[in-house]
Amino acid sequence: MKVTLPFLLAAAAALAVALGAPLATTVLGLIAFGVLHNVLELRYVTGRFAPVLNGRFLVVLFGLISAIVLCRLAALVVGQPARYAEILVGYAVLAAGCAHALRGWLLAIAGAVLVVAGAVSLSWPGYHFVVLAHLHNVVPLFFLWEWAAALPVVTRRWFRTAQVGWVLVLPFAILLGAFDGALSNVSASTVAAFAGDPAKIIALSAPPGSDALIGARFLVVFAFLQTMHYFVWVWFLPRHAPSAARAFERRVPWLRGPRAWALGAGLGAALALLFAVDYASGRAMYSAFASYHAYLEFPVLLAMLLGAGAARSQLVFRETASSGQQAAAGSS
Q1: Where exactly are the structural domains of the chain?
Q2: pTM score, two decimals?
Q3: What is residue 183's predicted lDDT score, i.e. its pLDDT?
Q4: Parts of the chain with a pLDDT under 70
């Protein structure tokens, strides 16, 4: 239970604050942990999946995601055309991941699926970005599922069940109205005056045209998953997957030890000043540069699901597996 109990406690706390103050949880959580979790997630992903993220593939991904950063910055000036451009480049990132992991007819099928999905996204861009926002918060399920592969069987089952519970079951229960009685008045939050019109923040997480109740439910889901997202990247994985950090440090030796934490905290403090002066501008700037960690997840996820580099990853991170077993053994 040593690796499962923290998630049960964190989920209970995250649900309570998300229901009681969803707007404040979303806004203040982003300011406090947004940049730091970016840095720590990039450290984990590029360290643990070094066999996948290397060479020309990494260069291609960096170039494509940099184009997305420019699209998000350009959206401040040109608006919707830049959002369409981001959609196209986003699917190019997925196409690069498929091309790296697949060959032959499987690659052809994946390409056809991406073309259809891209057409749907371009037809309904508002829905595309809402799905993208929630999907980003769901992705830790796959990384935690992969991390747990080396745990003893019983511990692994309990751990994975807990992950499915907070990532999928609880959000669906919220959307179905199971916690409506505990929902707070979103517009009454004192954060509303600081962050601006609550409707604009709700629009980032709710389907276009949602009524007030549905919008509030989606905001609570987003606030809950965002809080758990930070818990995974800022507390759990740095504590329980140290080999990923060491693998990253071999690639980026100038960012060893506490320097990654200092970088995340320092950049976060600088951006917090911009949030304090103009929340909308701070949110836009954060969103642009957060593209690196958000979009890098997807080709890695494709590689995990499609098996690219899986054997090499198991060899490189056997030490991480061992540490997971030790953690589980300590709980028994």
Answers
A1: 5-54+127-331
A2: 0.89
A3: 80
A4: 185-196, 307-332
